[in-house]
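hiii so my PI (J.) wants the whole complex modelled not just the main chain, which honestly fair. so below is everything: two entries, each one labled with what it is. i double checked the lines twice but i was tired so who knows lol
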Amino acid sequence: MQTFLQLLFAGLALGAIYALVALGFVVIYRSSQVFNFAHGEFLMFGTFLMTTFLAVGLWWWVALVLAMLATGLLGVGVERAILRPMIGRPVFVTIIMTIFIGLVLRVAVITFWGVGERGMPTPWRTDGGIRLLDAPMLFNALWALVFAGVMLVGFYLLFQRSKLGVAMRATATDQEVALGLGIPVGRVFAVSWLIAGILAALAGIFLGMFPRSVNINMSFVALAAFPAVLIGGLESPLGAVIAGLSLGVLQLLTQGYVNPMLGSFGQNFHQVLPFVLMIGFLVVRPYGLFGTREVERV
Amino acid sequence: MPTTPLSVRYEDDLRLFASVWRRIGIVLLAVGVVAFPFVVDGRWVMTANFALVAVVGAVGLMILTGFTGQISLGHAAFLAIGAYTAAVTGDTFGLPFWLSIPLGGALAALVGLAVGPFALRLRGLYLAIVTLGLVFIVNHLLRAFPEVTGGLSGIRVPMLWWFDGPRVGDATWELGPLTLASREQLYFLFVLITVGVVLFATNLRRSRTGRAMNAVRDRDVAAAVMGVNVARTKLEAFGISSFIAGMAGAMFGYVQTFITIDPPFNLIMSIEYIAMIVLGGVGTVVGAVLGGLAFVAIGPIAEHLLGGLPLLSELSSSQQQRLMFAVIVGAFLLLEPLGLYGVWIRIKIYFMAWPFRY
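here's the output for the full assembly
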């Protein structure tokens, strides 16, 4: 029972990070129909930037906000300079473009920060925790959940209640009509990339905390979050959150209970399982849990 | 340069090399290809072998993505299947390469046909990411059975002439003044395969199936209304494309002589193939060929150019190549949507209209 709870808590924390990452994909996809394969590298950039801010002695919370904003602005710049001219081009062109942006960003991060691993300092005791139902839970996991929750609620309010949110939803439905109605579509794109960058940096910073570390492989978390994005449905923030949390829990429970039973086949089985589930799921529901069903017209 | 002659008979339309100029060009190209390994350094022959592998792989992806419009990020998985089939059949069972290559293709095609049905329900990004999942799954399976595939420690890929017989390159051939060592033998074998694959793809594009593929790419619902069997066309595209990818994988294994799972068979490889066909020009066979050749040529050029930059010289050579490739292809996407093929068309039009301009 204790092992189960421990895995569950760790899984929830990981799931919260997945949810933040998946949300970053969804925000951009909803407004601009671009699937941002560079998201993992944005995440990595934000995290490394955070370690630098902390190293120069900024107060933790200030550094957090600055790192998030800087990553968001990087996203805005990338969108304006590279992806805006791609509007109207085939899907795979934006896929390649974002992957290449990721590659270049990755090289830039390696060039500036090197390949060494580093820890992510926290204002609370890094390896401390509380006991919940007799199972230990790290402060880091707790805060990850809290932050994810705050971001998700804020995001929901922004999307459903604010004028900007309505503009974003209009743009997501039909860019040309939105433009015709006087919605500044370009600015909506910029805002969604800003939000995505902020989410990416936040996810990365929590991903870099104990027991994990800040390293150049952390961008692969974006790949790991793909199944959550697709199962949740590409257009659905709610789906991304639900699928992200379940993905985290499922992964850690599989790692804890199923992997040891499978022998050599079970090695890293928990990393592949989400993809298998995703493929199976999409056959039954091709647009995910809450994705929009495409109406086919000639 | 004269323009293409007017086709007045059906036979004119059927000809692959319609004009005299084309035929002259083809002869020159053939002479160049045959003479190539004897006029350049041995290192370049090796580069050419990799380029031929890239060309075959790119043609395979072109059929799926360029002709049929199905975005696949799973190309590396099919190459991995081909390469490991060649390795296991060669190393464990002693099969000759002319059996291993089609076997690798066939096994990849089987997997491709198994993935095909997903493409009937999914499109665009969903399909891209499902095929990306295929890369992870195939890599996991290869890693999970180390007694067959060698697992993380990798496996040898012997290229045999005959069952349990001598390997390609064991004996050096003397043809008069010319000597054919292992890499030259490989080069000529690969040239044959590549020419076969390129001709096949060119003809496929002109056939009923190829036109059905193009119709599915442009608008699958409209294609279905016009009587194209969309499901069958997509399955054919997946089958053919993965067969060719499997062959390319086997060839890749033979050039490497020793392969591991990841790297090279990962997402990056899939991306590189997509980038090749985009760089060359989507939807054309020439584009796949040019893209494959350019991809391999960029590597040495990148080393040459970037070696001097102070910040970048610390990167490993594969990182430099990737960076260079990313920047060049990115610039192409921004500035020349039709790729190298578009550049070629523009040059051609310029000379055809010369001395006038558009």
